[in-house]
From TrEMBL:
<protein>
    <recommendedName>
        <fullName>Endonuclease/exonuclease/phosphatase domain-containing protein</fullName>
    </recommendedName>
</protein>
<dbReference type="InterPro" id="IPR050410">
    <property type="entry name" value="CCR4/nocturin_mRNA_transcr"/>
</dbReference>
<dbReference type="Pfam" id="PF03372">
    <property type="entry name" value="Exo_endo_phos"/>
</dbReference>
<feature type="compositionally biased region" description="Basic residues">
    <location>
        <begin position="18"/>
        <end position="39"/>
    </location>
</feature>
<dbReference type="InterPro" id="IPR005135">
    <property type="entry name" value="Endo/exonuclease/phosphatase"/>
</dbReference>
<feature type="domain" description="Endonuclease/exonuclease/phosphatase">
    <location>
        <begin position="106"/>
        <end position="436"/>
    </location>
</feature>
<feature type="compositionally biased region" description="Low complexity">
    <location>
        <begin position="41"/>
        <end position="52"/>
    </location>
</feature>
<feature type="region of interest" description="Disordered">
    <location>
        <begin position="14"/>
        <end position="85"/>
    </location>
</feature>
<dbReference type="InterPro" id="IPR036691">
    <property type="entry name" value="Endo/exonu/phosph_ase_sf"/>
</dbReference>
Length: 452
């Protein structure tokens, strides 16, 4: 038996208590690493959409970015870490300070109620609450209110009266065009009535051209108050489209996009060569022939397989959403030495004539998101978002906002990183009311000052 004196016992106790208070080397390292992360400074403005709509800020207007104080930057970082509930404004690398007249545009596929119910396999992992229209409508409404976009281009709208009533409270007016055939959803364009006036509207029923039951909208809007000294009219064409989904019918997809662009260009010329904004769900990925046609204004359809026009069939939802970080788009390599067999009917669908295989459009279009720098966590090498739609069978980008050369992008609302989206388990969820994310950008008339 070992005996220990009282003095020795007290010394041992003191040493033990000292060791308890002293953190381990690893613990201290982790503590300082977490502290450094919390204090890292972000130069981007962050928007957080609450899962409880009634707790959203009462102000529905987004403030321009300002340089915060050091103390406020520390607080901002703690509240703006990029989790699945946050999206950030990022700004153009060019000096846009001379651009005065600006337009905020949002494009949003809101997930039609009937479409969600007809395709339960896409949402089988989600609680039924997240698909409930009343629940989703409140999230969508609060998101729209928070973004405060002057113009909304919505797709898969089958409850237009609900939205019209809701958005009326926010100062919007809107027009709607339902799809032909048995489907009940359609497209809707809304605008803030104090900011814009509707000068003209028309709709395209693609069925009339043998191109299925999808529809598109074209509106001519005018800014009610111009702050610029420019004598140029502040009118523009806004186009809204939801392209056919079927991946096998690339001829139909191209035909719909071609006709849509033709009519948008014709309308712009008729109203004095005014700028054009194109928004919508193109059901085509950024590496696709459809994207190439939009971006480069031409396409030789014989160099493409009709079933791969949209890129959907080659797109793997398990890894494709973020593979573009290290893989560029090389259109010249797409079957450059191979011709694919197209039937006369398919050529006619795509080009409008059995004898034409080279498509062209007269709009010189630029992608709003490609015009504003992003990073590899949220963008591909084209500058497009990595993900705009996410459900159990797809995770990738099909939504876009394009503009003509008389407009310049000032800022865009970033989408969410792939890892953050994966943590949500799918869309819609408690924060986002659709299986798509809204795209939002601010465009400016670029004829102010000496900038072009």
């Amino acid at each position: 038996m070992i005996e220990i004196s009282l003095d020795e016992t007290m010394a041992i106790r003191a040493k033990t208590e000292k060791n308890k208070r002293k953190p381990s080397t690893n613990s201290a390292h982790n503590h300082h690493r977490k502290k450094r992360r919390r204090l890292a400074i972000s130069s981007e403005t962050t928007i957080s959409i609450s899962s409880e709509p009634q707790k959203l800020a009462t102000s529905n207007r987004l403030n321009p970015i300002r340089s915060p104080s050091r103390a406020s930057r520390k607080h901002e970082k703690r509240s703006s870490s990029q989790t699945d509930g946050h999206r950030r404004w990022v700004y153009s690398a060019r000096d846009c300070s001379k651009f005065i007249d600006k337009i905020m545009v949002a494009s949003y596929n809101i997930l039609g109620v009937e479409n969600a119910s007809k395709h339960p396999d896409l949402y089988h992992r989600l609680p039924s609450k997240f698909l409930d229209w009343n629940f989703r409508k409140e999230l969508i409404g609060n998101a729209i209110k928070f973004y405060n976009a002057g113009i909304l281009c919505l797709q898969e709208v089958d409850r237009f009266n609900d939205l019209d009533e809701l958005f009326h409270n926010y100062g919007y007016k809107g027009v709607y065009k339902a799809r032909t055939g048995e489907s009940s959803d359609g497209c809707a364009v809304f605008w803030i009535n104090k900011l814009f006036s509707l000068l003209h509207q028309e709709a395209i029923e693609f069925q009339s051209f043998g191109l299925r039951n999808n529809v598109a909208q074209l509106c001519v809007l005018k800014m009610n108050k111009s702050k610029s000294k420019s004598k140029t009219s502040r009118s523009f064409v806004i186009g809204n489209i939801h392209v056919l989904f079927n991946p096998n019918r690339g001829d139909i997809k191209l035909g719909q996009v071609r006709l849509f662009l033709e009519k948008a260009h014709s309308l712009a010329q008729r109203w004095g060569n005014i700028p054009v904004i194109i928004a919508g769900d193109m059901n085509s990925i950024p590496k696709s022939a459809v994207y190439q046609f939009l971006a480069s204004s031409e396409l030789d359809i014989q160099l493409h397989d009709r079933r791969k026009i949209s890129g959907q069939l080659d797109f793997s939802s398990s890894h494709g959403a973020f593979r573009f970080c290290s893989e560029g788009t090389k259109w010249s390599n797409v079957s450059a030495l191979r011709s694919f067999r197209w039937s006369d009917e398919e050529i006619r669908n795509a080009s409008g004539s059995e004898n034409v295989t080279h498509l062209q459009h007269h709009l010189k279009l630029y992608s709003a998101y490609s015009g504003v720098p992003g990073n590899c966590r949220t963008r591909d090498t084209n500058g497009e978002p990595l993900v705009t739609s996410f459900h159990s069978k797809f995770m990738g980008t099909v939504d876009y906002i394009w503009h003509s050369e008389k407009l310049a992008p000032v800022r865009v609302l970033e989408t969410l990183p792939v890892d953050a989206l994966k943590r949500t388990g799918g869309l819609p969820n408690e924060k986002w009311g659709s299986d798509h994310l809204a795209l939002v950008c601010e465009l400016a008339f670029n004829d102010d000052g000496n900038m072009t």
